[in-house]
Amino acid sequence: MKQNRRDYLRTASALLTSAAGVSVAVSGAESPPQWDPDATYTGGDRVVYDGYIWEAKWWTKGTEPSVSSGSPWKQIGEAGGGTTPEAVIETSAATVSVGETVTLDASKSTGDIATYEWVVGGRDPVTGVETSVRFDSTGSYTVTLTVTTADGTTATAETTITVESAGGSPGELTPETTIAEFFPNYQERYIPDIFLDFMPGSNDSGGGVGGGGSSTVNWTDAEKAAEFDVDLDAIRNNVSDGSLTFGALGTQALDWAKQFRAEGLPDHAVAQLLPRLMLLPDKTEDPTFQGAGRSAAWDETAGPIPASNDPALFYQDQWPTDARNEKDAEVKERDRVYFQAQNDPTWSDDFDYLNNYDSALLDTLQNNTHPATGEPLGGDRFTANAPMEASAEIHGSDWFWYQVLLFKNTSPVPYHLDGAVVWWLGPANFGKTMAAGAYNNEQRPRPGYGHPQRDIVEITLEDKHVPAAYADIDSTLSAYAVRLAYHDSPYNMRTAYPGQYWSLEVSVGEPLMNKFDTSAKRQRIVDMMAETAHVELETDMDLNDDVVDAIELYNRVGN
Known about the structure:
Layout: E1 12-17, E2 22-27, E3 40-41, E4 46-49, E5 52-56, E6 60-61, E7 73-78, E8 86-91, E9 95-97, E10 101-105, E11 113-120, E12 126-127, E13 130-134, E14 139-149, E15 154-164, H1 179-182, H2 191-197, H3 221-227, H4 232-238, H5 253-262, H6 267-277, E16 302-306, H7 328-334, H8 336-343, H9 360-367, E17 383-384, E18 388-397, E19 400-409, E20 415-416, E21 421-427, E22 437-441, E23 453-460, E24 477-485, E25 495-496, E26 501-508, H10 512-515, H11 519-532, E27 534-536, H12 545-551, E28 556-557
Parallel strand pairs: 9-15, 17-27
Antiparallel strand pairs: 1-2, 2-8, 3-6, 4-5, 5-7, 8-10, 10-13, 11-12, 11-14, 14-15, 16-18, 18-19, 19-26, 20-25, 21-24, 21-27, 22-26, 23-24, 23-28
Helix pairs in contact: 5-6
């Protein structure tokens, strides 16, 4: 199963298959182009300037390459003179069973190669001419080899390895299928702990976070378990040894697991979601909010608007380990977005970006282009990199107002939201009370679970920065971006499920009823929020770093 990711335009020169494995060769790229002062570059882009090859550290435009302090460029080496490399992948097998090891060999690559880098699925890169990899779940995994010469010229090749269950193709799921039969490595993924740590009835109480009041779930886990005939005693008695059957999980889990598997979601991801799938309704649950909520909301709302770029089905095949035993390496993997701000001095809790008019976010909202790549987003209204709908609302009274973006997953598969970046154009907050906001998802036993920290930026726009389509709005507007950074909760609570809502609330410290005092004005502002919104889900455990760097999304707030 290939990730739905951006195409990096690799040109294949040969593709050879055999019964033993796969050989893939791809010719190297041409030498980098000359630096262009009018071109936009993002992290990793290379250029030739003044006889040297330079690599961009982050988004930049118009800054000459140099070795000076703070330069967005890194000098790689002298330009010219190198031969064009070719990356060649040979694998010991193209199709293997769960638990088998595959050897990856790059020895037939050609050129004056200095480094070999392998990326398999969402795993961290490894280096070397040859490496081995073992798979613990079924699915299709993309293998990428990048070779780099001494002068910085690169070539890349890709192939796919298919991983089947030990008996061949995955067996049919029935009510009698046990979790050990479905996913033999259930213990390594802490499936028993995820079930037992969050049993229905023990985690159903409400409670708000983020300074925006409190809320409770509309339909508790205990009520869902009773409605869906979940056998809680069977879970307590049988989950640890793997003898828990799908039938004991009630009326919901089996059908969802069949659907997700049929759509290509890896078995380890399905297994990690089972504690919520057994409680996941077929109907769409009404959203709840942690701020003022719909009891104090404008009548005027916007949407739902389907993603106008018509994104393809989106798969995230990594779904990292949930680290229930708090081992350092696993916690670092599970909470990697959350820890990033703590480990990187670029982040702060001071909002210094209200006038950051160099941010690529402004070009994005003006031109409907991606902030990191500069490529068109492909739609004329709300856009996303996964199928979904967007709506917008305004809630509040007196001085406490919240702009709300509500999203619905319209695809047949779930996607986890850790590292997701959302940007939009909204009423100005002037940097006030930005910590007062929330992420909402009905598929949690209580609102606070996961309580993601948020990386957030606001840029208060001068008139010349406002997109022409919204120049008629007689009020100060701001460009906003938020990245979600969860911690201390399983992935099943960080997930957008098919047909279900999740939402963001961001406080606006101004009396919006005074600013937008007619129905037409109110409708105009919520329409603008929904139309300009974009959701960028994380792919390949990349933290969405390219977007974060391009728009300087370095402010962290608690929640």
